[in-house]
């Protein structure tokens, strides 16, 4: 049965092209912007450890499942789920899993683009030497003033959305492959240069012990307003949600990229490469940021502005800082760009398949939709910065619309999507079909994958969900 379907959107030129594109999707703001700040907010070491465990026991098996579904279906996630459900003798309602993914992609891209716009703005700000010898306070004030200006945020959000639409309109295969091949290694190289700088700060050891010394008590317990210590699973949910977010899982991005994967590539091998590269970037980013935080007496839990308030300090102090800083933000923007493309590809592929639209038309339509949703985030940072729509619930009490969008997508929609993908691949598809597609025979590798997606992954995700429910 394998290999009988062909994608109408074409194929990657090789297994490598897929690895590069999927790595481009995985490595992005999630690794460099989000991972350090949520690690800082959730106390460091224990959080990092749980995140790593989630990558291994949940992320890797689900990524394999998502690629295998995509390659077998060879269509947009919505149609792939529909086709595979029919093939396995099940209800076509499975296509709604694809629909939820499209929605999650829109919502994520809406705020992702605003943050990427901030990164883009920093290319210019660093380039003109604004940060030379700047103080932590000075940098924080500059950043906050920028956030207060809806027009500036809107401008950079618009530029980034247009960049995304341009690439998606031309088809994801042309440019991405080439861009990722050079830009990802360059980004990693600059991170290593920054790591060299961080090692020379007085607080390198303190930064490392914050990231790698687990304190489980601090993770699970917090003191509420009444001064009572309460247990919470919220940080575990956030760590798990981030494992999905950072690997681009649970919404069809990896599935749609998998649908362009040549039949002879080994799914297990490509998965290890993507997950390994993604994890390495995040860990190095953390090892750069936390020493800078402690060396300057800053607060690791300061929130989503963390990288924008710490990295400029390093660039302001190191030799050649304006140059490296500019290059760093250019590369960060590229990393975000290759991720944003994958966030709307499932929607675009579906519009082309089912509505007969051209790629260009489908990209513009999806792009405008995300741009509009993006206004919610733009205003969350200024005119609506004290609007907390769900303030009646303890966990959401001080969450802005942007915070809620992030929470809903990363911590609920992606893990739910991933859970359903695991159930579909492990329980509903025939054993022959999955074994055929993974092409590992009946050996220990296949058996381990199957045990993980059949039992471990769904049980782990469900436990975290159930424990997290009593947060509300
Ligand atoms: N993985 C991307 C990042 O870490 C974000 C993303 C999430 C991309 C979901 C596609 C799908 O930045």
Strands, total number: 2
Q: Which sheet architecture does the biggest sheet show?
A: 2 strands, antiparallel
Order of helices and strands: HHHHHHHHHHEEHHHHHHHHH
CATH architecture: Up-down Bundle
Total tally of structural domains: 1
Q: What do we call the CATH topology?
A: Amino acid/polyamine transporter I
What class, by secondary structure content? mainly alpha
What percent of residues adopt helix (DSSP H or I)?
over 70%
**Total helix count?**
19
Strand order of the largest sheet: 1-2
- What's the shape? globular
Describe this structure in words.
The protein is mainly α and 472 residues long. It has a single domain (15-471), classed as Amino acid/polyamine transporter I, CATH 1.20.1740. It is 74% helix and 1% strand. It is built from 19 helices and two strands. It has helices at 15-26, 29-41, 45-73, 77-87, 95-127, 136-147, 150-169, 172-199, 204-212, 216-220, 234-246, 253-258, 267-295, 306-317, 321-355, 359-380, 401-428, 431-438, 444-469; strands at 221-223, 229-231. Strands 1-2 form a two-stranded antiparallel ribbon. The longest helix has 35 residues, at 321-355. The mean pLDDT is 93. The structure holds phenylalanine. Phenylalanine is lined by residues 25-26, 28-31, 108, 245-246, 248, 251, 253, 339, 342-343. Phenylalanine binds next to α1, α2, α11 and α15.
């Amino acid at each position: 049965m394998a290999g009988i379907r062909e994608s109408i959107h074409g194929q990657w030129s090789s297994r490598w092209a897929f690895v590069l594109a999927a790595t481009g999707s995985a490595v992005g703001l999630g690794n460099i912007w989000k991972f350090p700040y949520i690690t800082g907010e959730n106390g460091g070491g224990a959080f990092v450890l749980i995140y790593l465990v989630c990558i291994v026991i949940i992320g890797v098996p689900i990524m394999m499942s998502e690629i295998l579904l995509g390659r077998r279906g060879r269509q947009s996630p919505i149609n792939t789920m529909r086709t595979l459900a029919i093939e396995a003798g099940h209800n076509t309602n499975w296509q709604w899993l694809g629909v939820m993914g499209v929605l999650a992609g829109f919502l994520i891209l809406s705020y992702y683009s605003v943050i990427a716009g901030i990164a883009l703005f920093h290319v210019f700000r660093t380039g003109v030497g604004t940060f030379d010898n700047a103080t932590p306070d000075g940098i924080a004030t500059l950043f906050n003033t920028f956030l207060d200006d809806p027009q500036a945020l809107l401008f950079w959000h618009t530029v980034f959305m247009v960049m995304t639409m341009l690439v998606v309109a031309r088809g994801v295969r042309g440019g991405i492959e080439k861009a990722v091949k050079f830009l990802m290694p360059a980004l990693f190289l600059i991170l290593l240069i920054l790591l060299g700088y961080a090692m020379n700060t007085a607080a390198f050891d303190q930064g490392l012990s914050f990231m790698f010394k687990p304190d489980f008590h601090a993770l699970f317990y917090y003191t509420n307003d009444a001064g009572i210590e309460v247990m919470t699973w919220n940080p575990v949910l956030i760590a798990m949600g981030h494992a999905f977010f950072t690997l681009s899982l649970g919404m069809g991005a990896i599935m749609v990229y998998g649908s362009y994967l040549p039949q002879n590539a080994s799914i297990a091998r490509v998965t290890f490469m993507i997950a390994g590269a993604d994890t390495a970037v995040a860990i190095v980013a953390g090892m750069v940021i936390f020493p800078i935080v402690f060396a300057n007496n800053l607060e690791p839990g300061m929130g989503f502005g963390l990288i924008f308030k710490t990295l400029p300090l390093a660039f302001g102090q190191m030799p050649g800082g304006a140059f490296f800083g500019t290059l760093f933000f250019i590369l960060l923007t590229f990393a975000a760009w290759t991720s944003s493309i994958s966030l709307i590809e499932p929607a675009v592929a579906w519009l082309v398949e089912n509505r007969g639209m051209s790629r260009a038309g489908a990209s513009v339509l999806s792009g405008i939709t995300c741009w509009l949703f993006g206004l919610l985030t733009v205003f969350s940072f200024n005119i609506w910065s004290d609007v907390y729509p769900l303030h009646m619930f303890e966990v959401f009490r001080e969450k802005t619309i942007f915070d809620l969008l992030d929470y809903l997508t990363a911590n609920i929609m992606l893990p739910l999507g991933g859970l359903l993908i695991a159930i579909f691949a492990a329980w509903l598809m025939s054993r022959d079909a999955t074994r055929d597609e993974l092409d590992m025979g009946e050996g220990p590798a296949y058996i381990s994958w199957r045990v993980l997606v059949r039992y471990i992954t769904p049980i782990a995700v469900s436990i975290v969900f159930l424990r997290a429910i009593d947060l509300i």
